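ENCODED BACKBONE
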Amino acid sequence: MMNKEKSLKFSFADGLFASVMMGFTLNYVTPFALVLGASSFQIGLLNAIPQLFSSFIQLKSADIVEKVKGRVRFITIGVFCQALSWIVISVLHFVFKTNAPAIYIALLTFNTLSGALVYPAWLSLMSDTVEKDVYGKYFAMRGKVMGFVNVGSNLAAGLFLAAMTQNIYIAFFLLFFIAGVFRMFSAHFLSKMEDIPQEIVPEKSFTYFDFLSRFPKGNFIKFTLYVAGINFATFLSGPFVSVYMLKELKYSYSLYTWILTISTLAGLLTLPLWGKLADKVGNVKIMKVCAIFLPVVPLLWVYSGNWIYILVINIFAVHFWNGFNLCVLNFIFDAASPAVRTRCIAYFNFTNGIALFFGALIGGVLVTKLPGLIHGSQILTVFVISGIARAIINIIALRSFKEVRQTDPIDESKLLLTVLGVASIFEFGQQIVGRRLRKNVQ
């Protein structure tokens, strides 16, 4: 039987190819829609509709995973379908001369569905493959390496688009086609992972409504609803960040790419800090500290459109979103036992997918209907609304859930200084002063 270490190597190879796919596509989904002539409302739909359909498929994903004979085969088929969809999207403009934005939304919905259907099974498989006491360390390490690959791919893609401005359709064709090919390699390595038998306890099966009914006392449902609320508030503005930079600030593809690349790279350098802190002091403490800063992020966009300033606030945002998202993932692994983990992940993803759908849909309506109250910009007005909404969610629900494992105690003010990088600087200064004092005494 294949050991877990070998299986993790295949998973790592899958992650490398998947990261290239993400680098070539994630930040260029909206720019491609703009090239196809999509309106602001269609941009909102582009982010909303795939989330809606993928959310409902999540409701059945746990049942499907329990019925299929192997998680690995199920995951591989879904990833292969996702790869094919990128190849079809790559030729979209050449095949469909009319209604391209609407067809693009449909294809991207299928793409998202393919990934969403298998994601709970992949998380469940990984949680059985990785040792529980090193979740934070492992996923931070994995995230860092995959992140660097993603950054390099994203940078190459952006510079390629900038160089191919006069042949932009050819450029997007090549990017998305290569992304599809790399995703196929990803499927190949996934198929080689060990298919660890999953623990299925029929009496522990429960419906989504059973899941919701646990709200008064259920720690995991409170956590789920809080994260969903933050995601709803974030997606009011999130889909329009690219639109704001490319259309309102008139950034070139190269400048747009450099800003995203440098901020992502800076975030990767601090990712190991989040993993170590989460393993030591707990995921909930880190989430709560990061959550304090999330409402500030969209408000900072209002001050200036200078590219250096935008770069700085993007670095700030990536740093805290990395900590938040890593701890959300780790908390799911900690809180859900193996017997119900796939189902809990599916219901968590469904709830958040619905929140993302309504956030993107309402954001799309607001950005077209609201007056430009902030510097004459409708998008900046929605950014402010998003920041206020995040703050309200924090006030209502941030303290509603608690940690589920034993952690080291830490003063909240010290933790805050640590994640801001101030504590390490202070400790370094103390060490220098201490050495000088000892030297003087000697």
In short: DSSP finds 19 helices and no strands in the chain. The chain has one domain: 4-191+217-401. Residues 422-442 have pLDDT under 50 and may be disordered. The radius of gyration is 22 Å.
